[in-house]
């Protein structure tokens, strides 16, 4: 499979300021495969250590702080000398050994010639605790489910080749437009979890996709129940299971009362933070003003939560494949489309996407900051015309750039452009 993160890993490898790298991301998004594939492509050899499967590894880090001694012992375990620069060292499931995670500090300070990548389940929740990792001594990289272009590369190489050739202002031929829309519909169903994508390539069985998605949901919920930290696991589960209900409302803003009647923010704030840190949900804040810098205008008590993978969200909402493929209207259509768009654009700009809801009846789906430009984004699940809220925003704020995502073709001018939904993760190239 093709993963865009390989480019970022290669940049890390070649950086003169390289530090040990920590990969964050939800379970099963492909972190282990990515590390091993990177080692296969760009190193003479890879030394893989799994702290969940190899308990005896922990004693090495519990009794040693000297990174060169640690390297020596790890080499003895593998029966081969580990060489700096030439070999990649992988610490997987590193959350099972806090001493190994903390050792990255010593590698940074005293043995940075060794290339080390660490990853683990729920690692983000550990990193959210100030004393759980060496601040300033590691590089961090978020790994997400496969984006639409990665999905396309895996499932239709020819169509992917055309997709990559699309440039700003280019006319997209109808035959390719329709094929890409079909691929987009499939992506809504399958999502970007690597196991689901691989299963589709191998079996083309929608029932198998649904089975895998259900297993993944159960796996995540089981992780919640096993969580024994200070955050109540039952509350984590309640927030997670409320996502569909939250996004089904006309106003998708997160409401604590939808989690449990009479619920208060103080009861569930930590559960939400845990889910965000774990990479399980995507949170976007409302802004009081659509002005630079957006971060300064975040309203921390007004936010929306989306699922980290659109295929899993589709499964949780129990949307039938028929509804998507036959282009039917259904209650959750708009929210599912927004979930998809957010997944594709969330990493395109330095500042995470926000939304703008100045009144109870007026809302801009997303708003992003690109340099000094503040770009409003409207998301349409079909071929609907621009909404009154978006028109009013354009009239009032007169942004230099504005974007609408829909199933219409790629068209527009310097200030306003309609981008087909399947090109969402190329937005920064097309606007």
Question: How would you characterize this protein structure?
Answer:
With 431 residues, the chain is an alpha/beta fold. It folds into 2 domains: 5-142, Rossmann fold (3-Layer(aba) Sandwich); 148-430, no CATH class. It is 44% helix and 18% strand. It has 19 helices and 13 strands. The protein has helices at residues 5-14, 31-42, 57-63, 67-78, 98-110, 123-127, 148-155, 157-165, 174-190, 194-203, 206-226, 233-241, 243-248, 265-277, 310-316, 321-325, 333-345, 388-397, 427-430; strands at 21-24, 45-50, 87-92, 115-119, 139-142, 281-287, 298-307, 354-359, 362-370, 373-379, 402-406, 411-412, 416-420. Strands 8-9-10-11-13-12 form a 6-stranded mixed sheet, with helices on both faces. Strands 2-3-4-1-5 form a 5-stranded parallel sheet, sandwiched between helices. The mean pLDDT is 94.
Rg result: 23 Å
Count structural domains.
2
Note the main sheet. 6 strands, mixed
The spatial strand order of the largest sheet comes to 8-9-10-11-13-12
Poorly predicted ranges (pLDDT <50, ≥5 residues)?
none
What structural category characterises the helix and strand content? Answer: alpha/beta
The helix content is 40-55%
Helices and strands in order, then pairings?
Layout: H1 5-14, E1 21-24, H2 31-42, E2 45-50, H3 57-63, H4 67-78, E3 87-92, H5 98-110, E4 115-119, H6 123-127, E5 139-142, H7 148-155, H8 157-165, H9 174-190, H10 194-203, H11 206-226, H12 233-241, H13 243-248, H14 265-277, E6 281-287, E7 298-307, H15 310-316, H16 321-325, H17 333-345, E8 354-359, E9 362-370, E10 373-379, H18 388-397, E11 402-406, E12 411-412, E13 416-420, H19 427-430
Parallel strand pairs: 1-4, 1-5, 2-3, 3-4, 10-11, 11-13
Antiparallel strand pairs: 6-7, 8-9, 9-10, 12-13
Helix pairs in contact: 7-8, 9-15, 10-11, 11-12, 11-15, 12-14
